[in-house]
Fold:
Amino acid sequence: GLICDFRNGYDAVPGCDGMGRLDGHYCRDPNATRVTTTAATTAVSTTTATMTTANTTPATTTAATTTALLPLETVENPDGAPLGECQGSCSRNRDCEGDLVCYKRGAFESVPGCEGEGEAAMGYCSYVPENYLFFYGWDPNKQMPLGLCKGDCDSDDQCDTGLICDFRNGYDAVPGCDGMGRLDGHYCRDPNATRVTTTAATTAELTTTDATTGPSLITPDLTLDFFGGDFVENRELGIRVSEGLSVRLIATSRERVQYADGNLSDLRYHTKTDGAGIIPLNPDDPTNGGYVYVSNAEKTSGNGGAYGIYFDDDGNVSEYKDLLTGTTKNCGGGLTPWNTWISCEEYRIESEDGIQTDGGQCWQVDPNPKSEYHDKPEATKLGGEKGGSYESVAVDNSDPRYPIFFLTEDYAYGPLRRFAAQGNEWEALHSEGDVTFLRMFDDGTYEWTTDEAAARVSANLHYKNAEGISYHEGKIYFMAKKEKKLIILDLANMTYETEITGRKFYGEGSFSNEPDQILIGPRRKYIYFCEDGGKNPGVYARQDNDENYYTMFEGIDGKYDGDETVGIALSPNNKIFYAGIQDAGIILEFRRNDGLPFE
Structure:
């Protein structure tokens, strides 16, 4: 008896409350009366709400009507031209035209003068009224003392003369100020302003009016992502986790792995756990058939290798076994388009005069018991005859006939290797290919050269000790660990960009030590990073549209001082995130509390 209501933007759906998703269509009663709104925005509209003030009787307050609002718009801006009103992404005022300012958000907070949901946590250019809540940051030292309705403040001393710091919870209204502000942000205000308590509406709620039914409350969707809010400490695991996540211990080094059926593995979980990846066991239908978490062991003297924890579709452990043994210091690696794992050894042997005589290789491993290559790991051609101190692998499979592999080397003079395979599937890595090396120039361009010596000099100048690497939509993302840089190569234009990791940081935590492994989310909304060293290493995420970094989890109380986070990977349905802490020897599972996939 229901029909589908095809709507535009946030049009009201007859018989239903709430805003819903921008441009989302919803099932409704065909006999319900369509409600027309006097303004259709998240926060600026004709609003009617019954309010009570301290020691007074309820009064009805009607806000002014604002029309012709512009929709929030995310624009492609490769030339860095100033952004117009309601356009994003901006990170500072000079990103905006004229007198517009960059209005930064933590989630989907309303933007003054604009309508729509926009992208989560994206900054948009706007004309911000003087009494509109404006968030400079969690520690805005350069803006202190803070003016009226500005934040975040931690004491009255941080506010302009005559103002006080309003300590609020969530999105509580700030007396004398308009707008939502940042979740749990504190703002400077006039101490004489009257605190208004709404009985039906909060800041950024609006009402629509129907002649027969009266006001109908519309509440915006303020669902935060899985980080950006408060943290919850897990004292048992010695970590603090973004409150949007739950965490479970999967395995511990030197202990048998617990299976879902109550049994234990024959093998004890390996020590020096490191790089990892997820491989579906049913490639034709990846979310049905189970999967395996393949993890390296960075142990010396032939005691390294790769191991697999096998899961069903719901993330229940069913098996743990070795997949590659007898190798040395298996550090990072990478996944292939044909669902195998490349496990790379990170060591080099030099003569007394500093000439390399031997080094690690990269091994191809197939964890699928149904494959003809299962239990038959084989050294690849990626590392060349002498090998090297290899780290991680990414592949450009845009032309499946000729996949191109990129291999990093964790060495001060280790160049990024490019291996153009002559074919696909398993044998492509065991046949000869064309090898070139990355040589970067100071003008933001680069080349692939056969001059390995020149490339090694370039590596020492521009990207020494390369670590994690990933390919996405025509670009290579890789880490220069010692210089704490993320380097992005545009493969089509032969140009590059660099960025200091963690410099633009949002919320609690600090990504200030060496970046290591990297994982790009399925929609590239976030890029995830491991951290090597420091008192409380963690896993962090970079929002792609504004380059802000967030804490996903990190150690507490120095429990993992000097350790490193490792093994970040996503289940085939993207709803389970795996990560480990190397010397502590633990593998953790993270899920979003809202049940949504990681992005």
Summary: The CA atoms of residues 50 and 60 lie 5 Å apart.
